[in-house]
Amino acid sequence: MNELPPVYTEENDCQDCYKCIKACPVKAIKIESGSASIIPELCIYCGRCTLICPANAKKVRNDLRELKQSLMRNEKIIVSLAPSYLSEYSDVNVHNLLAAFREAGFWKVSQTAIGAEKVAEETKKWLDSQPNGVYISSCCPSAVQLVKKYYPECAAVIAPVYSPMVAHAAFLKDICPDAKVAFVGPCAAKKSELDEFGDKIDFVLTFKEIRELFEDMGIDFEFMKPTPEDVFFPFAATRGNLYPIDGGMLANMINSITTVEARINHNMGDVCVRYMTFSGVENIKEILEDTKELSQNCKTFLELMACEGGCIKGPCSNVNSSSASKRVKVLQGVETGPTNNTHKEKYDSLDISTDYSYISPIHRKEYTQQDIQQALLRVNKKNEADELNCGGCGYDSCRSFAKALIDGRAENDMCVSFMRRIAQDKTNILLKKLPQGIVIVNEDLKIVDANEKFADILGDEVKMIFDANPGLYGADITKLVPFHRFFSSVLNTGVDVIEQDIRDGDNYYGLSVFSVNDHSLVCGILQNLHAPEVRKDLVLKRTQEVIMENMKVVQKIAFLLGENASYTEAMLNSIVESHKDSGQKENEPLTFEL
């Protein structure tokens, strides 16, 4: 048993962006101390989070170390090559591919599709003996995990047959008892089967791991020199190679490689069997919640695949081309002629029956309305109008987020609106307490925000305007102060800081103007130099302390929103977030740069 689960989090790399929560179809993610870790008992190992994580903190377990040790000991290892190889290595001559595996130290290469054909055969026999109802394929381990964990009411109708990988490994072990079997494919969930069927399969590797192995060994397909022995062992597969595409299993069960859509209903005497294929976890979830509509007066067999488009779009593939192009490669590579089964007796008598009782269902907790309301209050959501459903936390709704809070899988500061409100309130309080006048002006010389001290310093007339319009939002700076040219100068030139002592009649001011966002926003710090408590040398220092105080909170907001803003940019953005000038473009963020 491996210490690491098939999919896990490298916590030191996690950047707290919550993209994995958004991507996870079952929300098997726990946020703790700002780090997103996978909950193994909830995970279905679809691997979607590994594709979406920008910091590469979500990883598929690498099992190369154990394989390399086995190769160094010259152990006899047979590769069980997933049929997705037809799209993964479409530009590689198949004999060169087999020669590359031989060069790496593997004894033989066999096609997992052999096991797939056996699975189709045994599943068809089992289905024929069942009464009318809905039945589910067992080929995709991620889909099986989903059904068993989240829809246990459907678990009894999963075909009690090994997956193609396990069935193939069992066959290879039967004909070569002294050999080990290493599966190679695009699937992360197959590693969960390694943990459960360790007596049948010895290694589960991804296409990415094999590429790493070949690169470490300096193996290049182009320079391989195939020998007559570089052929598939013990014989070549046929229709089983259709398995990695939508409907591939059904094409085997109804003995046709035509499109499944053309063979929706297959009649066996008086019994009608409806074959259907679906891929994508969200699609599967919808279907499993609606199976009652499918079970009337016939058998309905569902081929379910967690990856959209089938195994060819598995998370551990090196080729990122479209489902259509990959599907074409598979169809072009499938052999449909007769094959020489040199182990037909053992193949026919192979027992691949199993059950999936090792997968435990998830206990679905019931949440009362009071529980949810109390959780929502933790993030200051007091009524339905406060439930923005912005998705910044990664959950589909505020109520889903509240349930995660109750379960301890989420933290308060994941809520964007909650954190924004905290930052804004904190900023407003700190601005009010500053002994200097603060004003922020946009490119049109209109005030975005100002504190009360700024109005006090400028006199009674401005103070009256401030009382009527707190923050002086939208006021024209050129009509309020005689020294507005300094703001224009910084806006036009982008000069970092202008410091100027200004005399206006009997008034004597100290003014510091600095660029917040080049040619867009400037901030002015104003003080009355006649005031005895003013110490000019502390003005900028005090302001910077306020900025530093807010950095951590607003940086958190920037991450939640998925923006790559700098610390200072994010801080000053919180000051003007609720006071954007009416002339600002709707989706254009106000950013700052000191």
Low-confidence stretches: 256-264, 563-568, 578-594
Rg, rounded, reads: 32 Å
* Residue share in helix: 25-40%
Strands ordered across the widest β-sheet: 14-13-17-16-15
N-to-C CA distance:
54 Å
Structural class determined from secondary elements: alpha/beta
Summarize the main sheet: 5 strands, antiparallel
Mean pLDDT: 86
- Overall geometry: elongated
Number of helices, where a helix is a run of at least 4 consecutive DSSP H or I residues = 23
In percent terms, what proportion of residues is strand?
Answer: 15-25%
- Total count of strands: 17
Topology:
Blueprint: E1 7-9, H1 19-23, E2 29-32, E3 35-38, H2 48-52, E4 58-60, H3 64-72, E5 77-81, H4 85-88, H5 94-104, E6 108-111, H6 113-128, E7 133-136, H7 141-150, H8 164-175, E8 180-185, H9 190-196, E9 203-206, H10 207-217, H11 248-253, E10 265-268, E11 271-279, H12 281-288, E12 299-305, H13 323-333, H14 344-349, H15 369-377, H16 398-407, H17 416-433, E13 437-442, E14 447-450, H18 452-458, H19 460-468, H20 477-480, H21 485-493, E15 497-504, E16 507-517, E17 521-528, H22 539-560, H23 567-576
Parallel strand pairs: 5-6, 5-8, 7-12, 8-9, 11-12
Antiparallel strand pairs: 1-4, 2-3, 10-11, 13-14, 13-17, 15-16, 16-17
